[in-house]
Design brief:
Radius of gyration: 29 Å
Shape: globular
Order of helices and strands: HHHHHHHHHHH
Number of helices: 11
Amino acid sequence: MQPTGQGGKREGNGGLPSREGNVRRALPPGLDLVGKGAWRVLGIIGVLAVFVFLVAQLEEIVVPFMIALLLTAFLKPPVSWLVAHGWRKWLAIILALVVAGGVMAGLVVLVETQINAGLPEVQERSVAAYRQFRDFLDSSPLQFTSAQFDAFLVQLGREIQKHGNEIFSGALVLGKTAGHVLAGALLTAFATIFMLIDGANVWRWTVRLFPRGARPAVDGAGKAGWNTLTSFVRVQILVAAGNGVGIGLFAFFVGLPLVVPIAILVFLASFIPVIGAIVTGAIAVLVALVFVGPIQALVMLGGVLLVHLLEAHVMQPLAMGAAVKIHPLAVVFAVAAGSYLAGIPGALFAVPTVAVVNAMVTFVVRGRWRAGSDPEDAQGPGPDRGPVEHPRMGEGTGTSATGNGDPAT
């Protein structure tokens, strides 16, 4: 009669109790469960760390691709609308790209025109503000006279001349950065065009890289994430426009110079949720304090706070809450973590990344993909057959399986 374990099964070789079984019996069940979970968590953290490292190394490729995804998510709905109303796809894509490029070029021209027109007034107000500051130093109890301030400026100029080599090398780095920006802009343009043209086939090819049993989950999760991304882009544009118009109107009423550039700066910075609008609003208050006066600066501060309150309590809950479905506290920490890891690009892409990942994980965890079929047959879509339809894949994603829910389609 050989010794057996629980259930009459032998433990280890030769019927002797295995070492693993002895260890498990020696550990409390709770500690054993926590240990198993800890190993899984460490594995997930390791995968994420490798992913973040690869993204950091390939930043000059990843950032243009992410920008192209956002542009595609914004341009795809009007392209689909034009195609549904009888336009040819290539013509609809060209029209959407031309209109988007025209709007961006118009904003640049408007900012340049406003700056050129308001520059003399800004120079006059700057000289007046400088003189007022010198008078304030002479009459204030700070014991820092205008002569000492002039000496400080002279010393600052000498330090700049002393470190001219460093500044020159920084200019060379800036030139290299400009070249990288140009290359990134070209990559973004090409990626956007090709995703608008053939995004569906790119996504189907991506799905076929996964094992056959995992394809329904990957396909459904991708569609859920894509729907969330398109909703986020549309809503974020509305929120940014509201911030820009609101702060721009207050800047106009208090008599700030360069009202239109300030409003456009607020609009662009608002694509970084929470932090972007706060920083640009603080800049507007500082401009009001320097060029207009303390009373107007207080009025401008009240206007900025009012705009942010409307964003936080009206626009974000009603619009962004339905699109992103993540808590505002998570938004703040996501922006902070993204800016810490990748600077401005990290802050820009943090919230949409978290929103998309949340939608994809939620779709997979709910398990609705189990009711769907394989998104591709064994031989792929083929030139004549087209993609195999999902009888029930649209369930839970908000779109049909073969419609506009396909990522980058």
